[in-house]
């Protein structure tokens, strides 16, 4: 005779209930409404601002002038030096490139300025100093600025 066996543990035959799903429709409707209203607002501001006209303080001509101002304040003898003067020099040099590139993107007349500044930076990366080749490109950019 066998000893008495314990009763088997009942096994759950149903999966645990998943949490209730939240309705997705209201969230989607709010998102679409926000995009439509936001896009309409941006479009209205753009339309009222006059588009891409070159008004004082904006546009390619202003970007080119600002690039030349940054280049005018750039002192290559301070480039790479430690401290605030070195930081100012680096930032003005690269700001001139960024602004000239923006000007050239808006008006092809400013492409020579952008090419000359970018060329001087490429040369600097190759030469690691303001050699005659670097200065030739930099002076070309400064000459373009003198003609603005």
Which residues sit in consecutive blocks of at least 5 with pLDDT less than 50?
Answer: 44-48
> What best-fitting shape do the alpha-carbon axes yield?
elongated
Outline the biggest β-sheet: none
Share of residues in strands: under 5%
The strand count comes to: 0
Q: What's the helix-strand series?
A: HHHHH
Give the mean pLDDT: 79
Structural class from helices and strands?
Answer: mainly alpha
* Gap from first CA to last CA: 112 Å
Total helical elements: 5
> Rg to the nearest angstrom?
32 Å
Give a description of the structure:
By secondary structure, the protein is an all-alpha fold. 64% of the residues lie in helices and 0% in strands. The chain has helices at residues 25-49, 59-72, 84-106, 111-127, 132-147. The protein is elongated and about 110 Å long.
Q: Short summary of the structure?
A:
This protein is an all-alpha fold and 148 residues long. The protein contains five helices and no strands.
Topology:
Layout: H1 25-49, H2 59-72, H3 84-106, H4 111-127, H5 132-147
Which descriptors apply to this entry?
single chain, 148 residues, mainly alpha, 64% helix, elongated
């Amino acid at each position: 005779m066998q000893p008495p066996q314990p009763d088997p543990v009942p096994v759950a035959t149903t999966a645990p209930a998943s949490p209730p799903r939240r309705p997705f429709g209201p969230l989607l409707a709010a998102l679409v409404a926000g995009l439509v209203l936001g896009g309409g607002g941006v479009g209205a501001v753009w339309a009222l601002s006059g588009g891409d006209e070159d008004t004082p303080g904006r546009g390619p001509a202003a970007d080119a002038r600002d690039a030349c101002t940054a280049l005018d304040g750039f002192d290559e003898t301070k480039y790479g030096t430690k401290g605030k003067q070195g930081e100012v020099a680096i930032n003005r040099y690269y700001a001139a490139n960024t602004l000239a590139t923006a000007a050239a993107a808006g008006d092809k007349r400013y492409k020579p300025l952008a090419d000359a500044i970018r060329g001087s930076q490429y040369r600097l990366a190759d030469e690691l100093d303001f050699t005659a080749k670097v200065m030739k490109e930099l002076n070309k950019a400064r000459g373009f600025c003198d003609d603005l």
